[in-house]
Amino acid sequence: MANEIERKFLVKNTDWKHHTSGELFRQGYLNIDSERTVRVRIVGEKGFLTIKGKTKNITRAEYEYEIPVADASNMLDTLCFGPQIQKIRYRVSFAGQTWEVDEFLGDNTGLIVAEIELDSEDQKIEFPEWIGEEVSNDPRYYNSNLTVLPFNQWQAPLSNN
């Protein structure tokens, strides 16, 4: 079994963007429930089918398979529900680790999230200055939930003014 151990953070500014270029991701979901998600994704000229199990702490089972890009495109266009996730992913090296920064487009424009994959849940991390609040356990930030309730539909916090 393959496991994904991942922490997710908001970003405070665009300092991460200086020496990197991004790659467009297009993805949708065939299934979302409390026990599993099934995702279809196109990155460049490659298609992928990914099955993820239920998240426990910051770990979950993950299985990913390359599929023909034409099949992935057809599934995205005909079988996936909700608005598709479109984002530009940037890979940023810092202190010997790779951060993946996702700048969301479409219905999720304005949301920028940084993720780091770990070897263990207690692995030490050095944080770049541009890393903000941790949102690893906030389900609103799961990509699968962004198809159900996109960022542009979130209610703005109430002001005390």
Automatic annotation (TrEMBL):
Listed EC numbers: 3.6.1.25, 3.6.1.3
Matches recorded under CDD domains: CYTH-like_CthTTM-like_1 (cd07891)
Record's protein name: Inorganic triphosphatase
SUPFAM superfamilies given in the database record: CYTH-like phosphatases
One Pfam family per UniProt: CYTH
InterPro entries: CYTH-like_dom_sf, CYTH_domain, NeuTTM/CthTTM-like
One GO MF term: inorganic triphosphate phosphatase activity
Main EC class the enzyme belongs to: hydrolase
Domain CYTH stretches: 2-148
Annotated keywords: Hydrolase
